């Protein structure tokens, strides 16, 4: 059993950087903490690269089976005071997974409704966008360079489990991917746009949302099939990007639900 | 002209606490920074209690008229290095308003659609909720004890001007206010709730949203006329509170717009 008791241990220092949302430059790993996230990982992806457990947490009921399942070289006990520093949650049991950032392969053709984000900078917004997309029933998210890291602790906290319900493609070249689309690309913009509520959204589309201050980049916007705007009061300039996405994604969900109910009624 | 050059000046220390979102216990003042917020205040409320300007910002075109309009005892020049510490914005001109927190009187009867928040803790969520409410055309917000401070720098940043489009009632006793309602009280909950999209929302209502983890408190929920849920995928447990509010408020806006268009068409 590997046991770390020094704060100068290089592995420990690397985990601490991950936990604090400041990974090393080429570090593509993710830090997961606590029962909820660790179980979500186990269910959707399997065992972690490394299981790190604080001394006192080793005796927890739910930890035993995971500990037993991990190979010897992939499990580490941490002295409690070091584990407390690593923990980003107050009073949480010190159980951590270190895992490789999922890097799914983009499909040859995109045929399912999904979320595209262009340089969304705030990790809280990004996590909320993923959570909203998952709640709306989408299954894939594509994030351009310049987006906040989807797997940072902050974005994970805002995501509330959405990371495990979605296939997340980071560093996606959205302009290039636009050529793989078999469904419309819908972007929200205030300029030369149709009103959301007059748009027929029953078929799937790609929803593209842009940077908090600048919106969707011009070259990407030029590739959009639909330019959509949410009819809002002029009391404020715009909606927060995650709020705008919630309005659009759930308007589509509404139209799809209404259509499904009508189809069912017609059959009866 | 008053000129402050010492970081030990008690006024300066009080402003710094306000700027950093940690006001003294009985300090009911608000710190506003920059051209956009200061102008918004001027337009909606008038002159500030104190105008604070960094030495270098004193010569800015837009500052001159405000400086001239403020009484002598209510304007202060700050040495540039102190102003830089006070500033929460990178490279922004050092122009600050210190103002009294608006404390509007609640009406005897509540007849207009408005936003009620029960213990929404995160200042970012709170600001986004206000922004969404203003964008949806609401004009009043009532915030219970236990909500984040609406006028903290963080909530102001997320609000993006909504604070000046809304009448914000902080420390509101929502249970007591429920007895002043002439319109339905609508709360979102997952328990024994009607689906949002089957609800007739053409008439105004009060929208009540609750704490990020716990939702609306039971005693308040018991006072709700409508219990509403957003039909979402089970991939995540729930929506972020600000996302849920965006969906509800804009579904109401959609129904009202559709009704207005139909009424107009019928008249023609």
TrEMBL record, chains A, B:
Species: Castellaniella denitrificans
Any Gene Ontology biological process: methylation
Gene3D superfamilies the UniProt entry points to: 3.30.1330.30, 3.40.1280.10
Keywords, ordered alphabetically: Methyltransferase, Transferase
GO molecular function, one term: methyltransferase activity
InterPro entries named in the record: Alpha/beta_knot_MTases, Ribosomal_eL30-like_sf, rRNA_Methyltransferase, SpoU_MeTrfase, tRNA_m1G_MTases_N
Matches recorded under PANTHER family: RRNA METHYLTRANSFERASE 3, RRNA METHYLTRANSFERASE 3, MITOCHONDRIAL
Domain tRNA/rRNA methyltransferase SpoU type: 115-250
Pfam families, alphabetized: SpoU_methylase (PF00588)
Protein name per Swiss-Prot or TrEMBL: RNA methyltransferase
Keyword set includes Cytoplasm: no
Protein's UniProt keywords contain Methyltransferase: yes
Organism ancestry: Bacteria, Pseudomonadati, Pseudomonadota, Betaproteobacteria, Burkholderiales
SUPFAM superfamilies assigned: alpha/beta knot, L30e-like
